[in-house]
Amino acid sequence: MSPRIILIELIVWTTYCINELMTSKDRLEWKGILTRFVPVGICLVAVMQWRSYRKKSAERIARQWEIDCYCMLPLRTVSRWWGWIADIQLPEFLRPLVYGLYSNTFGVKLSEALHEDLRSYPSLADFFARPLKNGIRKIDNNSSLVSPCDGTVLHFGTIHTGEIEQVKGVTYSLEKFLGENTWNNNNTNSKDYRTSLLHKTHEENTLYQCVIYLAPGDYHRFHSPAEWKPTHRRHFHGELLSVSPRIAKWVPGLFCLNERAVYLGSWEHGFFSYTAVGATNVGTIKVYCDKTLHTNFPKNTIRCKDICLGSNVTLKKGDAFGEFRMGSTIVLVFEAPVNFQFTVLPGDHVLMGQSLGQVGQQKFVDRIQKPPRQISRAS
Fold first, then answer.
1. Would the pTM of this model clear 0.90, i.e. be above it?
2. Per annotation, catalytic residue among 123, 147, 196, 223
């Protein structure tokens, strides 16, 4: 959480407190305001102190005790309060100031928004999940796979084993990430989890993955990257750790620790999964075809919940799929022929609908390696 995000939070928070204090009629209401907001301030200070410590030890992988300490921070409490604060309806006169500060800080392209008048967004969460103008994003229909969102490519590649990279040199477990394979009846006798996911074992197919991080200034609705059918949803009630590139390089298994909604199904080449990963300050993950999904609950809820979506949902390339109420990460794990090639590089900033990969093309090695874009380190 950068100082600028905290400043924006405090503006929203202070505005609400002033409105409450102006309408307070007795000491009990004043006491209620203090007991509700002082713990939030303490949580914010704790998070800032931890991130200061992290900055001093940024060039190495976290030890287990450090991960345990990180998980002990009240990040879920902070995130729930932040989600609540972000949903507060701001006075109309204050909206241009708050949203303008946010836009200038994180480089939001207001000209792309469907509603350019900042006063039309009742809350910061509504502004964050703003829709874009029709036609502002072009879908590459010549590609097998397109980007599901605006964001930065953290990592991609072929999955050879049960351990896969979240960023270069830092891995996570595929089985822990997706959970027990209870949905594919084709490979119930396979002892290898990776192989058990494959639908077309008689063909020369393999598994691939792609990780895309949404920075605070990015468009935060996500879409379908291909024509596919989600048939199962698995919701993991995990931690709400930051998923910024800096933290992803530091915490092994980060995506397995965090709360996430995993959608499992198939496309023309076999197995396909689409995962929306929660993070610090992500108040809500919404999926339009799954009204039963509710995220960012208290930590004492069940660890994992599965539902069957049936076979009635079919998504086409570019179809709206859901939205983050604050930023996070999309992880694609899918089956494709061995001649599938990615058309991006790590560090590339991609737009929704832009080509991610193509089946049957020459290996993509001719692009000049360019330095990765400077990525915001917030959340």
1. no
2. 223
